[in-house]
Structures are given as structure tokens and as C-alpha cells.
Design brief:
This protein is α/β, with parallel strands linked by helices. It is about 45% helix and about 15% strand.
Length: about 270
């Protein structure tokens, strides 16, 4: 990463995730009582501290992006979405992670699994809403209107629009699969970390706990920054983008896509 000497500027937008901030309630390896906000000035040192305790590949990557940007003079923006759901509109991967992973597991085993008895709060965002945030941020940078838009150590942005619990999440998936005949029971089976990791993350227990059983509440403060520092058309789009509805963990849009995929290529699940 290097800043050009000609009349061209570079910036980097890095896709990350709030599992960087997640606690570990199953193993009790780390407990985090606070709710985070992306306006907090201590996020960067906090991430450094967490990574010194437990190295995590995604967090290590983000820290490297920030430090390299600071040393090279390139503005960096880290976008940290929580659980993403919905069907994408691109040409390549159109599915998210948690919802399809648990669905495919249930289609294989005949029952939806939930990691432990943990029912902590986590947050979520719909994939097209998240894509709109990227457009808004990139547009401001390209237009040269990013002077007041934090970058580098302060350029960490959350993108949540709603909140749910892991219990609601699992129950919603079980209900959806049961209603279309994908599984024969709506009952959710609670399993330990070893079994869940084997089923969902190829045996990687840290990855499983942080992404399928942790608590992370990350408030998107910079929504208000964009609201008061953008063009009228962008304000209208933001009003649509961040609709504050209660997430009912009803992943029917992804469900039909996955069931159709399974019918055509059973080996895919």
C-alpha cells in the first residue's frame, strides 16, 4: 500500500465483522460487558489489546490495514457489519454466512442446532442495505467530501440495523425449514462447542464461538454523521437503508435459494 506521487489518490475500504469484538461465553475465555459504538476513540487500541490476548485472523488483518495505511498516508475505512442476512444481487457468491451454514447443517442432519444455552443479543443487517452503505461512503471519498469522515485508527464503522438473540435465530430457521418440509421437527437441538464447530466451521472452535455463540452489540453512531453531512438524495436513501424493524429471524428469502440449490446439486449441502 503506497500513496502515489502523481495527481491520483488512493483509499481502502476493508470488509471486516463484529466478531472482532465478540466475547466467548461458551468457554468463558473472555467476557465483554460493554456495548460498543463506532464513535468511541478507543476501538483501535481495544482491538490491539484483544488480539494480544487471542490472535484472530480477521482482527489481525484489520489492524494491519490500519497501521499500514497510517504509515503510508493512505486513508483506510474498516466496515464491521454484524450478522448479514438476505440474498445478494451480484454475479458470484450471493449468500451470507450464518443463516446458510445453519440451514445446510439442518438439511443434512434433520434438525436445527444451537450452540449451547447461550441466548445473548447480537445484531444484524440485510445485505443490500449494507451494500448501500459502501456506496455512500465511497461516493463521499471520491467526491472529495470525506474531510470530516474519520479514517485510520478512527475509521471503524459499524452497520447494524436490528437485534436478535441466538434462540430467536435458531427458532426462526427451524420454523422456516419445517414449513417447507425441509426438516420434520421445529425443535432446536442445543449442542456443545466441539459438535457445533465440527458441523459449521470445520472444527475451528474459536471461529465457531465468536460467530455462532457470542454476544456483540455494536451501535452505529456514524449513521448520524452521514445523515447530517450528505446530499438530499443520500439522506432519502439513508432513510430507506436504516429501517429500524425487529428482526424475526425468518430467513425465507435465503431458504428457498438453498433448498433449490440442494434439489439441483445435493452434494452442495
Amino acid at each position: 500500500m503506497q500513496r502515489s506521487k502523481v495527481d491520483i489518490f488512493f483509499f481502502m475500504m476493508q470488509t471486516s465483522g463484529t466478531s472482532n469484538l465478540a466475547d466467548q461465553p461458551i468457554t468463558n475465555a473472555y467476557h465483554e460487558p460493554r456495548a460498543f459504538t463506532d464513535a468511541s476513540p478507543d476501538l483501535y487500541p481495544y482491538l490491539q489489546h484483544r488480539n494480544s490476548l487471542t490472535p484472530y485472523a480477521q482482527r489481525t488483518t484489520d489492524l494491519t490495514v490500519i497501521s499500514t495505511g497510517l504509515s503510508s498516508g493512505v486513508k483506510t475505512y474498516i466496515i464491521m457489519p454484524p450478522t448479514i442476512y438476505g440474498i445478494g444481487t451480484g454475479f458470484f457468491n450471493r449468500l451470507t454466512i450464518q443463516v446458510p451454514t445453519i440451514m445446510r447443517s439442518a438439511l443434512r442432519t434433520g434438525q436445527v442446532l444451537q450452540l449451547g444455552a447461550n441466548d445473548g443479543d447480537v445484531e444484524c443487517v440485510q445485505c443490500e442495505d449494507l451494500a448501500d452503505l459502501y456506496i455512500l461512503m465511497a461516493r463521499r471519498v471520491v467526491r472529495g467530501e470525506s474531510e470530516d469522515m474519520p479514517s485510520g485508527a478512527r475509521g471503524i464503522y459499524f452497520a447494524s440495523t436490528s437485534r436478535y438473540t441466538w434462540g430467536e435465530f435458531a427458532a426462526g430457521i427451524a420454523k422456516a425449514l419445517f414449513e417447507v418440509g425441509g426438516i420434520k421437527t421445529k425443535e432446536v437441538k442445543k449442542v456443545g462447542l466441539e459438535e457445533a464447530a465440527k458441523e459449521w466451521t470445520g472444527g475451528h472452535q474459536l471461529l465457531c464461538e465468536l460467530n455462532f455463540g457470542s454476544k456483540y452489540v455494536a451501535h452505529f453512531f456514524f449513521f448520524f454523521f452521514f445523515l447530517f453531512h450528505c446530499h438530499l438524495s443520500e439522506r432519502i436513501l439513508l432513510g430507506y437503508l436504516f429501517r429500524w424493524w425487529k428482526f424475526e429471524a425468518n430467513p425465507m428469502d435465503e431458504l428457498y435459494f438453498i433448498v433449490s440449490e440442494r434439489a439441483q446439486t445435493p452434494a452442495a449441502v
